[in-house]
Amino acid sequence: xxxxxxxxxxxxxxxxxxxxxxxxxxxxxxxxxxxxxxxxxxxxxxxxxxxxxxxxxxxxxxxxxxxxxxxxxxxxxxxxxxxxxxxxxxxxxxxxxxxxxxx
Length: 103
What we know:
3 helices
């Protein structure tokens, strides 16, 4: 190799090294501050906790609804629940009951 070949190759190698370093820095920056990086980790944990709490609340609500559906089974319905629903939905009352309206 001559000295001229080494001088021509040197800027190209410097450019390749600079681009490689830039690529590594970009990947490192994304690993730290990207959408799934270290900074987003704590935010994702907070979202996970919020969603788990919401799931627990929905499971409780679902269990209440399951219980209510079981109490309304036509084969053996709960008389108290049926009476409550009749009174609230149809405004039905026994003749001996007194209805007091709260305004």
